[in-house]
Amino acid sequence: MIIVLKPSTTPEQLSSFTEKLRNDYDVTINRWDGVHSTVLGLIGDTTRVDIEYIEAQDIVENVKRVQEPYKKANRKFHPENTEIKITDSVTIGDGSLHIMAGPCSVESEEQIVGIAESVRKSGATLLRGGAFKPRTSPYAFQGLRSEGLDLLKTARKQTGLPIVTEIMRVSHIDMFENVDIIQVGARNMQNFELLKELGRTDKPILLKRGLSATIEEWLMSAEYIMANGNDKVMLCERGIRTYETFTRNTLDVSAIPVIKKLSHLPVIVDPSHAAGKSWLVEPLAMAAVAAGADGLIIEVHNDPPHALSDGAQSLTPEQFDEVAAKLFSLKRALI
Amino acid sequence: MIIVLKPSTTPEQLSSFTEKLRNDYDVTINRWDGVHSTVLGLIGDTTRVDIEYIEAQDIVENVKRVQEPYKKANRKFHPENTEIKITDSVTIGDGSLHIMAGPCSVESEEQIVGIAESVRKSGATLLRGGAFKPRTSPYAFQGLRSEGLDLLKTARKQTGLPIVTEIMRVSHIDMFENVDIIQVGARNMQNFELLKELGRTDKPILLKRGLSATIEEWLMSAEYIMANGNDKVMLCERGIRTYETFTRNTLDVSAIPVIKKLSHLPVIVDPSHAAGKSWLVEPLAMAAVAAGADGLIIEVHNDPPHALSDGAQSLTPEQFDEVAAKLFSLKRALI
Amino acid sequence: MIIVLKPSTTPEQLSSFTEKLRNDYDVTINRWDGVHSTVLGLIGDTTRVDIEYIEAQDIVENVKRVQEPYKKANRKFHPENTEIKITDSVTIGDGSLHIMAGPCSVESEEQIVGIAESVRKSGATLLRGGAFKPRTSPYAFQGLRSEGLDLLKTARKQTGLPIVTEIMRVSHIDMFENVDIIQVGARNMQNFELLKELGRTDKPILLKRGLSATIEEWLMSAEYIMANGNDKVMLCERGIRTYETFTRNTLDVSAIPVIKKLSHLPVIVDPSHAAGKSWLVEPLAMAAVAAGADGLIIEVHNDPPHALSDGAQSLTPEQFDEVAAKLFSLKRALI
Amino acid sequence: MIIVLKPSTTPEQLSSFTEKLRNDYDVTINRWDGVHSTVLGLIGDTTRVDIEYIEAQDIVENVKRVQEPYKKANRKFHPENTEIKITDSVTIGDGSLHIMAGPCSVESEEQIVGIAESVRKSGATLLRGGAFKPRTSPYAFQGLRSEGLDLLKTARKQTGLPIVTEIMRVSHIDMFENVDIIQVGARNMQNFELLKELGRTDKPILLKRGLSATIEEWLMSAEYIMANGNDKVMLCERGIRTYETFTRNTLDVSAIPVIKKLSHLPVIVDPSHAAGKSWLVEPLAMAAVAAGADGLIIEVHNDPPHALSDGAQSLTPEQFDEVAAKLFSLKRALI
Questions:
Q1: pLDDT one-digit tens code per residue, B295-315
Q2: What are phi and psi of D234, to 5 degrees?
Q3: N or C terminus: fewer CB in 10 A for chain D?
Q4: Are residues C136 and C82 in the same domain?
């Protein structure tokens, strides 16, 4: 951490400030005196140094971090890729490509079991489906709730596919005990109370990137879960909010190699929510695999025009079958 | 709502689609046939029409809303300004200017009572202070929690100032029973489960705008609270996330007159979080008042360099006294 | 084009407005009367209708385009892909993958000829290099200017590679006569005077997307060139400006399939400027090819640490050789 | 400038790098050795240090500027406000409030003279009007061009108001000789060739902020003009591009105090283009004055519904008269 002091700093202020830093944190301090400013360099574990506290000092002109503020999610301290075992045959982050497929919302037993069987045949290894739905409008369909969870379990029983579904409040954690992967949605990426509580479980977590979260903030949210004891975090890029309105969100494909460089956690990509249009799912999914994603989460609905949510971006099972074949073929070509 | 159909739509598809729309929603449908496309116009209460469902239809090229998707928050259906009475002497939205002032975090009785007395003398009519703090890093100070709430109540007792403080999870609602205004932070603006539960209370709610929420999404979050029965919602503009990095956020001053036009709810502005720098608080607060804000929420700390959070943007009580004087003088000049 | 009128519109205003529309433009007008508003639908060629003129009418609540505002660049009116022949062996947009490679700035004969020979061996089919450099700072190296153009021609002579280089002002057009592809940089995407004049030449144009240009604005800039007579336009995605700061820009990989859907023009991707970091070039280039790009433009420098501009994002010839091999292998796997 | 080196740096690399820095630039270098990294501090005039060159070094982890990259526009080296005298009675930056008013496009003598007389009576001290219009569509009205300039001069003769109008290409500079203030539009803010040539004139320049330009880039564009010899630069905030679509752009009101802190140049605000809606002009203009702007540029049209461009955001002369009265009254209250 590098701290640039104002030219007006007095020797007394300087010495009281550096003394405080040494006492509060386990750091050593270097110092240079330039023409216009004095610069301090903090050496040691600066993860715990509160940058806002430093910025607030009257004598401080500006502060820059050199070290990343996350530790458990940081590849520097954990060079090996994290692999998350979901079932005997599904391990995410082990170099293979996993596709989580299914409808935006669970609607009925027939629907979810039918889709599950179909996507399994096409090569999907996990079933996604929403039971609790975060909707912008209070008047829109909010999901089948606990009934939806039960239907997902029925579909799992019939197909053997592990299930991924979204949680929306702390008090539901017990209800999600028998879910294979708990998803934290983009709008809850900084619901810190939820992250903390999920950190106290041992469930694999699929942490979606917030609509306008920086990569660093996203890793800090992973750190919240990990700091509370749960290391099984997967990061899911689902498009970010930009000025472009043709696509619902802008898929940040760079996030894949960047996360791979900064962290050891697996990266999943959601081309369905990024695009908001079903014809964009294939090219975005192809791009994600080519850029190194560990997995994809894709919306599939047997009858998109009658889907109760997000139909515009859902593939039919037939379309999914074709897309999945191309994705696995691309993955084989890359190895 | 206007729906443009694809040129390939068959007469059968068209009639089955329009029939379904008429059955599902209480709307009448007009239709034109252009050279390249057919256009449908839905007339009636389209608030409940699920735009995603429409977009998902194979035959639909695109859909445009004419009517806003929010109803209870809409000025069209509630032309008078909403006034929210907090105490006998404090009513927000009645044309007077209210300043909520206080520290980012409550730190000690001495601190919070001292600041409360000081800001009251300078003209603040409400005391703000964080007991539960949403922090990006799990390693940063997270607030004094329930002890912080107790200290706020002590300060209220001593000064008579009603208190405003942030809630972070549903299970805390009971604990906030004796708070005057409950704040929902920017990161929880779309924590829909929290919004619903707050809608079931009768507490005044200060709803901060999400980091990258559109004005429409923000009003939809207000609608969540109102649709569940609680009409006492104030909207708080606190800066949005843009590409500009000099300021922490970009204060969207246009949001003030826009909200005033679209909605009847009061608008509060938070220049401290928008700017992230104490020297920007005064000019941004002045701009907010000149643009028509009903109130301001300003961070004041007796000792910003030693604040446990957000010190860089806090004013000292002396600075606040000066700024408040200018703000009230500006307000008087505008009437 | 759909025009929603205000409830207050009088019959006289309505008839005078519709009469004017019919006179000014070759359109027919349909009309519905809803409960709260009257809606007009304009049918015909609305490309020339000035949307700002419509919005300015007192009686107009809002206006929505149904038809795209570009015509010559629109795939609807030109369903076949545009193929642009550069030399006998290089045609862009014909389904093959072309890589334009070379240094950010031309620095010396030895440098540019050496890099040209090297990238040609690795499979590049065009040579890129800047002679005139748009630099944020007036104190930074501004390019070798006309001498740089001469050196590019020398390199072309030695290697047979056609050359791509950036133009910065109208008065240089004559100087660029013997260049194979003229590049318009991101900062000049809406330098309309330059676009018009380039439209009067018959040179292939590589039109980079502006830093915050929407896809529609970008296509409108292509339309400027085409409306003036020059159909040889290639669109180059080079990253857009977002709030994320880890990457220099955010590569909008969705733009590739979107442009392919909306337009018939070829799409080139610049992973070097998008990323700003050389280690990101490979994954982003792979993603671009997988998403359907017709070509790539990649910075290669024999000695990146001593490059006079953009060294941080340049590959060495050895790195480029490896990346190019992977890209061509991926392209073959996709066919 | 602070340079963090990679842990793998060898002593030879380090000494050859620091030697090169000392030779190329007039700087002294300090160095610390941390546990994980070595840090270099460059002291001296780093304005001319090419940050891209430094970033490109293999041994460099990252670089941070401490000193701003602009010099002539920097308040540190020019503490006094710049005042730009336009006529005997109009000096911009001297503490008074100046309003530049007039139509988006000059359309006829009657129109421009009529508007000029009217806005002068309301207190405007300069006349704005577009002769050359940058339009997104090649099919939209492009301005009366040189005839428009002549009409502006006629209006100046009749009213005494100095004129402000936009230039779009270098070859027009001679034609603008008799204009009082030359405007550079947002889309040309980084048309560096134009900036350089304007730097060789002695005309006052109104430099609009680019659609997605950072404050630093904007100041660097001012620096381009100033580095070529012309110090008469005014900066015009006109809204930036964000994800919010309700307003055409988002007025960055913080830019006013930030520019005042970083630079000595006057700041003008354009509420008309920022908002895109005439009813937003008044509150945004009020906010701008309250935040410290030196002037405003406001669109006024005698007949907005028939304006050939930007009618939706234009005020009528009557509306302008009312708004101007409020603005001058606010300005008086602030002193």
A1: 999 999 988 877 777 778 899
A2: -110, 140
A3: C
A4: yes
User: What percentage of chain B reaches a pLDDT higher than 90?
Assistant: 72
Integer Cα distance of C110 and C128 in angstroms? 15
Q: How far is CA B264 from CA A301, B72, B76, B221, D173, in A?
A: 40, 9, 9, 15, 51
End of a domain among C23, C41, C64?
C64
Q: Read out DSSP for B244-301? A: --SSSSB-BTTHHHHHHHHB-S-EEE-HHHHHSSGGGHHHHHHHHHHTT-SEEEEEB-
Q: Could you say which of C35, C212, C245 has the minimum Cβ distance to residue B245? A: C245
Q: What domain count does chain C have?
A: 2
Chains adjacent to A (≥3 CB pairs closer than 8 angstroms): B, C, D
CA distance A73 to chain D (A): 18
d(CA D87, CA D269): 20
CB contact under 8 A, D36 and A245: no
Whether D53 and D181 share a structural domain: no
Closest CA relative to residue D149, chosen from D122, D168, D125, D136: D168
Q: What is the DSSP string of A148-175?
A: HHHHHHHHHHHH---EEEEE--GGGGGG
ipTM: 0.93
The residues pairing with A31 across neighbouring beta strands, listed in sequence order, are A40
The CATH number given to whatever domain includes residue D221 is 3.20.20.70
Angle at which helices A146-159 and A109-121 cross, to 10° = 40
Helix orientation angle between B146-159 and B109-121, rounded to the nearest 10 degrees: 40
Residue with the two structure tokens 């520097």: A76
Give the residue from B64, B85, B110 where a domain finishes. Answer: B64
User: Residue C147 — φ and ψ, nearest 5°?
Assistant: -60, -35
Nearest to C255 by CA among A283, A291, A292: A283
Interface check C196 vs D, CB under 8 A:
yes
Chain centre to alpha carbon of residue C121: 27
Tell me: do A159 and A225 sit in the same domain.
Answer: yes
Q: pLDDT grade, residue A35 (50/70/90)?
A: low
pLDDT in tens, A307-335: 777 778 899 999 999 999 999 999 999 97
Least confident of B155-169, C8-22, C226-240: C8-22
Taking an 8 Å cut-off on Cβ atoms, the answer to whether D138 and C228 are in contact is yes
If asked whether residues B95 and B176 sit together in one domain, one would say yes
Residue carrying the six token digits 């006349």? D127
Which positions ≥6 away from B103 have C-beta within 8 Å? B111, B112, B115, B128, B129, B130, B299, B300, B301, B302, B307, B314
| CB-based contact, A4 to chain D, within 8 Å | yes
B&D contacts, CB < 8 Å:
113
CB contact under 8 Å between C314 and D56, yes or no, is: yes
Q: Is D245 part of the contact surface with chain C (CB cutoff 8 Å)?
A: no
Site of tokens 């479980």 = A201
SS3 call for A193? helix
**Whether residues C265 and C123 fall in one domain:** yes
DSSP B312: G
Nearest CA in chain B to D244: B214
Q: Partners of B37 in the beta sheet?
A: none
Picking from A251, A256, A279, the nearest residue to C283 by CB comes out as A256
Question: For residue D244, what are the domain limits?
Answer: 75-334
How many whole angstroms separate alpha carbon C79 and alpha carbon C74? 8
CA dihedral C174, C176, C181, C183 (to 10 degrees): -100
Q: What is the 3-state secondary structure (H, E, C) of C11-50?
A: HHHHHHHHHHHHHHCCEEEEEEECCCCEEEEEEECCCCCC
Pairing assessment for the beta strands A233-237 and A267-269 based on DSSP bridges = parallel
Ordered alpha helix ranges (H), chain A: 11-24, 51-55, 109-121, 146-159, 192-199, 215-227, 255-262, 271-275, 281-290, 317-334
The answer to whether residue C307 neighbours chain D at the CB level (below 8 Å) is: yes
- Note whether B33 and B86 are same-domain residues: no
B69 found inside a domain: no
